[in-house]
Write a structure and sequence with these properties.
Glutaredoxin; alpha+beta; Glutathione S-transferase Yfyf (Class Pi), Chain A, domain 2; homodimer
Chain lengths: 207, 207
């Protein structure tokens, strides 16, 4: 039985897990969720994830949402990109930071700027979310100066979590010329064997 | 050497850790951060936490930010409110959900509605954040129906994380009459020995 990932290509949170599974070479099956047309709100989908979140992952008896929990589960089970014991809390701290302060603003900002119908967009909200995105980009760029990976000497779940939304080309308030250390780090991830862009890895909504 | 927590009473993220330390009976020292007047942006504070986050925690050689990482560290070290092995990913999933989908919107919404000068508030942004808060309150309330705690039969870091902002009395877009299962669960937490309201537990900005 392979791991089943409920996803769509536009979801950076889904890409955190799909990217990990792909470069780690762990077999998985993709289930496209028609998120933009209510596919996460159907009774069928709610029976997998009552919160209506994408991604969701099913591995035999285990069903999870939240990409950070999936990454920890997969790393515990398969061992690829495992964290050194000494780095445990530092890696967790960055995964939480990503969910709390970074992807939580990049994701909604990109959604409103690109996928929400124009009449539902708010300049105030985009301005607010963009300012949070920029603060977090500054923190990440400063941290990555002189580092190849976020924590320690190898890639960890912190890298898979924090990088994910940054591979998308749609605008989300990031002027890439201002973040050279982030760009160098993204290139380290692109150089992983078999790495794929999210739109080449998962089925998505038409662009 | 006791644990040092850099905090201020208005910070729900600080309260996640302070509440845990207090009800677990673990000795700790409080350092007030004058957050509203730039206290998290000083060079001194940045030497403890370069991200400028509150809370930060120092325990001997270990310095952490992100309340979820602190809770995991403290539970690993002290054992109070430890998670059963079978519940590991489920507890992590809820801590991540809190950081990703709940506190990340409750905190900024409450800040803008109550602590930001009126001329800097945006009705559009408050409306946006409130709508995210309400979606998450619905998810949590539904989950808590028939449950005493979020995961399993005892309180875990999932409870300490998710409950924190909900003990504040300032408005943040929650009509408490609509969430009876949340209110019953908060009462379970209030009944813990030695439980204290955040404003009775930490030094804060004058209200």
């Amino acid at each position: 039985m392979t791991i089943e990932l409920y996803s769509f290509a536009q979801s950076g949170n889904a890409y955190k897990v799909a990217n990990y599974l792909n470069v780690a070479g762990i077999p998985w099956t993709e289930h496209f969720v028609d998120f933009f047309n209510g596919g996460a709100r159907t009774p069928e989908y709610r029976s997998i994830n009552p919160m209506g979140e994408v991604p969701a992952m099913v591995d035999g008896d285990v069903t999870l949402s939240q990409s950070g929990a999936m990454l920890e589960y997969l790393i515990d089970k398969h061992g690829h990109f495992a964290t050194a014991d000494a780095d445990k809390y530092e890696v967790l701290r960055w995964v939480l930071w990503d969910n709390h302060k970074f992807s939580s603003f990049v994701g909604p900002c990109r959604f409103m700027m690109n996928f929400l119908p124009e009449e539902k967009r708010s300049a105030d909200v985009i301005g607010y979310l963009s300012s949070r995105v920029k603060m977090s980009l500054d923190i990440l760029n400063t941290h990555l100066e002189g580092r190849k990976w976020i924590v320690g000497e190898t890639a960890t779940s912190a890298d898979f979590s924090c990088c994910s939304y940054l591979f998308y080309d749609e605008p989300f308030g990031m002027d890439r010329s201002k973040y050279p250390h982030i760009e160098a780090w993204l290139e380290n991830i692109r150089q992983m064997p078999n790495w794929k862009h999210p739109y080449d890895l998962m089925q998505g909504h038409p662009l």
